[in-house]
Amino acid sequence: MLKPLMRLLSSLLRPFGGRGGGAGRGSGDGAAGREGREGLLWYRDLGRCAGGEFSVAVIQANQVLEDQSQIESGSFGTFVGVYDGHGGPDAARYVCDHLFSHFREISSGSQGVTCDGIRRAFVATEEGFIERVSQLWNTRPDIATAGSCCLVGVICQETLYVANLGDSRAVLGRKVGNTGEIAAIALSSEHNANVEAVRQELKAQHPNDPQIVILKHGVWRVKGIIQVSRSIGDAYMKYAQYNREPINSKFRIAEPMNMPILTANPSIMSHHLQPSDSFLIFASDGLWEHLSDQRAVDIVHSHSRAGSAKSLIDAALHEAARKREMRYSDLKRIDKKVRRHFHDDITVIVIFLNHEHMVRGSQGPQLSIRSALDH
User: Fold this and answer.
1) pTM for the full predicted model
2) What is the DSSP track for 42-105?
3) CA-CA distance, 351 to 1, in Å (whole number)?
4) Closest to 154 in 3D by CA, of 110, 191, 192, 106
5) pLDDT digits over 189-200, tens only?
6) Nearest CA-CA partner of 23 in 59, 72, 65, 66
7) CATH number of 18-192+228-370
8) What UniProt keywords apply to this chain's record, in alphabetical order (predicted)?
9) Are 375 and 89 within 8 A, CB to CB?
10) Domain ranges within the chain, ordered by starting residue
């Protein structure tokens, strides 16, 4: 009689899944980590996944949160997704709902996890969202101007895959010999027009368009509109039928669109994890606007694992306050929407690598977590 009662209590106390509610399905033994909420901040201090341990935190700045994120763990390994939306939350939410499902379906075949399989998952997600834009065009044409950057990490046995669209960033913290120091290794390519190589890529792809990138108020933008050159969504920059009324005039391009201006083709790399590879930081560009790669790695290295993602956001907010010559305590009192004038929505996921588990092929707990903040 006692055992059935304990199982019932355990099931009632177990974290639950689904967007908006509380974001997590754990193994019932604390794998999901302790969840907390402080004003516009949501976090999980420390949980367990197939790749090791994780810490996650999200701070909201927009009236409606445009960042979405997820951690999935199972027999395949660990999947991390950071989706930084723009033009509203629609594209980021769609990616969070569908990209992992496509990845699991594709990678469940005989070839397993591959760079090509990850790319196909991105393509399927893009096609699905563009189809949604088509379906809603007559009732919600504004969805054609919604898009999302996508940063994905997959840890499968001893291999790390990183796929990226846009300007979110993945950084590896690597031990430097026996010095006790840690080095920051950038793992993702950023697709932002403020990067010279990206501007050259766009000019090469559009040789007959002298206005493909325009400098406005000190910021380079594609067609003078958007900074990122790759994304999911942004149908108005890919298909002429969506670059017309009734979308807002600031998104409409006067010249004929003979080919997509933006692309959903991700940059993908694979890396064989080494014993010196200590942890990974996946974050939206709101973090990197205020912290360098090395400073972020140093913060994680010098703090307790528990709450490390929260510590990174805290450091970014201190820097944002310093730039505006204001007190950190005053910044924290500013509510969402107005807060966006001081910093962006920020999502941070830190994965502490457990090489012993990866070598043994340990599956780790079944886990599904999404960030949870008001929409």
Assistant:
1) 0.91
2) EEEEEEEETTEEEEEEEE--SSS--EEEEEEEETTEEEEEEEEEESSSHHHHHHHHHHHHHHHH
3) 40
4) 106
5) 999 999 999 999
6) 72
7) 3.60.40.10
8) Hydrolase, Magnesium, Manganese, Metal-binding, Protein phosphatase
9) yes
10) 18-192+228-370, 193-227
